[in-house]
């Protein structure tokens, strides 16, 4: 077809009405990617060679730059990498992980599983494959567990995965008894340990666990960490520890006795404890403040049956657990009390817990529990 012939056709068409037909092939992008991937595998028209570990990957600069701002900046900048025919990542990225990223670049697909999700997230963040990073974060969010939430917390913090961080943080707070015994906890950086132990939302039935976790963390690398002891002690609600434990275990701890500042913190906690035991005024010190999650709800009595036990409402498990016998059965009476120390003592409940005893004689309380707590199992007790 000559140029003049095309011009003639244009002028002929302009004399009449113009009909427009927009052609779009929805599978075109996939077919182009498929063919580009085939060219890559055949090493045709490739213009850069990526190295990772002991493997090499021939690629097209245009494809890499189109899906990664990292490569776009590398190939378009004035640095030597923009003209180099090879890029060597050495051991900063595993060859299997780089291969997965390249497969995604040329196919828009990648299989994420428990074995590769964390490494893919790190590599995706490093090489600015944002879609991969976000997809891996979403996968890890769905696979959070008390046994891995600390690792996910550190990973998400390092790579700015906000939602994964928030979910991991909440799981760490609600499963402190589990994570405090793990190797991951002992390897946490100091700032994160302080943030965790000082949280008002930390769920623990016994402040002794918080104290012992702090001491264990220091002892894990004593030479480097002993200087942080006083800061960690300030995160523990020392005045909420049992008096005997505070006097015989904490005050006599060798690490504390050797540090003037740590010793002062414990002595102040002992003074607060004595004021609490002697009911000598209001104690406002942080070391005596219960954590927000330190509460329990107990049920006593009912409308339709003779009650001979005190029951604990477990909001997590959504069930009611018998905790203790009462001296004589009761029926059809009601009462409510908060902070019942006497019941705490008889129940052998850790002193940290604020107790709420609800004794129900009507269906109204049942509806309140079901609506607020989602505990349908409570129905059989009323």
TrEMBL record:
It holds the Pfam family BACK. One of its GO terms (cellular component) is Cul3-RING ubiquitin ligase complex. SMART domains: BACK, BTB. The keyword Oxidoreductase does not apply. The keyword Signal does not apply. InterPro entries: BACK (IPR011705), BTB/POZ_dom (IPR000210), ENC1_BACK (IPR047097), ENC1_BTB_POZ_dom (IPR030562), SKP1/BTB/POZ_sf (IPR011333). Residues 46-114 form the BTB domain. It comes from the Eukaryota. Keywords: Kelch repeat, Repeat. GO terms for biological process: negative regulation of translation; proteasomal ubiquitin-independent protein catabolic process; protein ubiquitination; ubiquitin-dependent protein catabolic process. PANTHER family: ECTODERM-NEURAL CORTEX PROTEIN 1, KELCH PROTEIN. This is Ectodermal-neural cortex 1. It comes from Pelodiscus sinensis. The lineage of its organism: Eukaryota, Metazoa, Chordata, Craniata, Vertebrata.
